[in-house]
Write a structure and sequence with these properties.
Helix content is about 50%, strand content about 10%. With about 190 residues, the protein is of the alpha/beta class. Strands 2-3-1-4-5 form a five-stranded parallel sheet, with helices on both faces. The longest helix is centred in the middle third of the chain and has 24 residues. The relative contact order is 0.20. The structure holds adenosine-5'-triphosphate (ATP), (3R,4S,5R)-3,4,5-trihydroxycyclohex-1-ENE-1-carboxylic acid (SKM) and magnesium ion (MG). Adenosine-5'-triphosphate binds next to α1 and α7.
């Protein structure tokens, strides 16, 4: 019989939530959504869930309650979401850098650091205005600061996937491959 099937890979069954961590603009939301679809599990975006819980945009939460107020809500929302079984959770770029939130995510999820060259990220976040930490700043300068402060936290993730400058689809394949290898050793 001719080979007609496009993919013979068995579907990966997630035993726990998977949390995506990494810098803003690296692809946690857009890659995460496609990853969840490929694995047939729910997708959640922590920033969106915080917005729903507060009835305010991330920018408005920063403006009304400051970054500390945002971080407090972020911790509660992430902890609640991760009690909800296998899923893909896109965390906000700063979540894994807050010690208490970091510990909650590490306890409750398999953690995946999505990583790519800062120049690729700077290009992706250019001309967008919904990230308060980038507003009125040179994106490359902010990203370099975040690299210095945040990479030591992100590096504690269970898995690191360098997605380069490839398509969302290719990034999803890379993450699934890395998850399979990681879960096989558990
Ligand atoms: N692998 C990729 N290939 C092509 N485009 C990408 C990829 N990852 C992200 N992008 C693009 O970069 C932009 C930012 O991606 P996304 O919003 O998913 O980042 P994020 O990590 O969720 O950022 P934040 O922490 O600010 O929420 C989007 O326009 C998205 O389409
Ligand atoms: O990198 C950060 O600290 C942030 C990233 C976004 O996902 C949002 O959570 C918010 O804009 C803060
Ligand atoms: Mg996002």
């Amino acid at each position: 019989m001719p080979e007609t099937s496009k993919s013979t890979e068995p579907r990966l069954i997630l035993p726990r939530p998977v949390a995506l961590v990494g810098l803003m603009g690296v692809g946690k939301t857009t890659v995460g959504r496609r990853l969840a679809e490929a694995l047939a599990v729910p997708f959640r975006d922590a920033d969106e869930e915080i917005e729903k819980a507060a009835g305010l945009s991330v920018s408005d939460i920063f403006a009304a309650f400051g970054e500390a107020g945002f971080r407090d809500g972020e911790q509660k929302v992430i902890s609640r979401l991760l009690d909800d079984g296998p899923q893909i959770l896109a965390t906000g770029g700063g979540a894994f850098v807050q010690p208490a939130t970091h510990d909650i995510i590490r306890q409750k999820a398999v953690t995946v650091w999505l990583k790519t060259d800062l120049r690729v990220i700077a290009r992706r976040v250019a001309n967008r205005n919904h990230r308060p930490l980038l507003r009125d700043r040179d994106p490359m300068e902010v990203l370099r600061e975040h690299e210095a402060k945040r990479y030591p936290f992100y590096a504690k993730a269970d898995i690191t996937v360098d997605t380069g400058d490839q398509s969302h689809g290719k990034s999803v394949e890379l993450v699934i491959g890395a998850l399979k290898r990681f879960l096989e050793t558990k």
